Amino acid sequence: MNEIKPRFEFRTWARNFGKVEEKMRKLSACLGIRESAETYIISAGNDENNTKIRDKLMDIKVFVTEREGLEQWNPRMKGEFPMRAAMLESDVFPAFGVEMPPLQRDVYTLEQYLDEVIRPHPQLSAVSVFKRRFAFTINDCITEHAEIRINGAGLQTVAVESVDVPAILEAKKMLGLDEYENVNYLRAIKRVIGLEALPA
Asked: pTM of the prediction?
């Protein structure tokens, strides 16, 4: 079986990406449009585990390394609701880096997990994120332009992903992204909800 190599990613944010989007659409046809409603669990005690829930499936990715200003993330776990308390204790809560409250149930539905465990916790936030993602291929890299709403706040994001670091760096130049800051979803959401300061 071939080993799956985690991709490196460059992601940046703005109110809009007019010229960047124009370049993207000149370089590649749009390969598809996807929409999703997701819930990110944001922790004041964690910057290295990205936890999101979509269609009652929990996905946790862990930060691996940084190279040439790009970030590499690797899947840590996938789980489905209803979820056993034992899995929440062993696999989910350690990713948040905060103290876990006593669990009162053996099994939690998604709604019970959010309402009884996450929202009452003083260091955790359940953040609603809606995504409309437009897919492209630039310099053989997976590339997207997306319209995002974070708890209702509208932003746009552009991302370039590949296992090939030089290919991402060249794609960034082709799109005019060299002066943009690399900001992953975790940090972007923290800025929107006030857990991280905005850049000066």
From this structure: 0.92
Three-state DSSP class for 87? helix
Are residues 51 and 92 in contact, defined by beta-carbon separation less than 8 angstroms? yes
**The pLDDT of residue 1:** 47
CA 39, CA 130: separation in Å to the nearest integer?
9
- Cα distance between residue 39 and residue 54, in whole Å: 7
- With 0-12 / 13-18 / 19 or more C-beta atoms within 10 angstroms meaning exposed / middle / buried, residue 71 is middle
Packing angle of the helix pair 18-27, 165-175 (nearest 10 deg): 120
What are the backbone dihedrals phi and psi of residue 155, each rounded to the nearest 5 degrees, phi first? -140, 170
Q: Residue 137 contacts by C-beta under 8 Å, 6 or more apart in sequence?
A: 28, 31, 143
Give the C-alpha separation, 79 to 81, whole Å: 7
Q: Enter the tokens of residue 114.
A: 């959010």
Residue 140 banded pLDDT, cuts 50, 70, 90: very high
**Domain map (residue ranges) of the chain:** 8-77+124-193
Architecture of the CATH domain 8-77+124-193: Beta Barrel (2.40)
Contacts of residue 192, defined as CB under 8 A and 6 or more positions apart, other chains included, come to 127, 150, 151, 153, 155
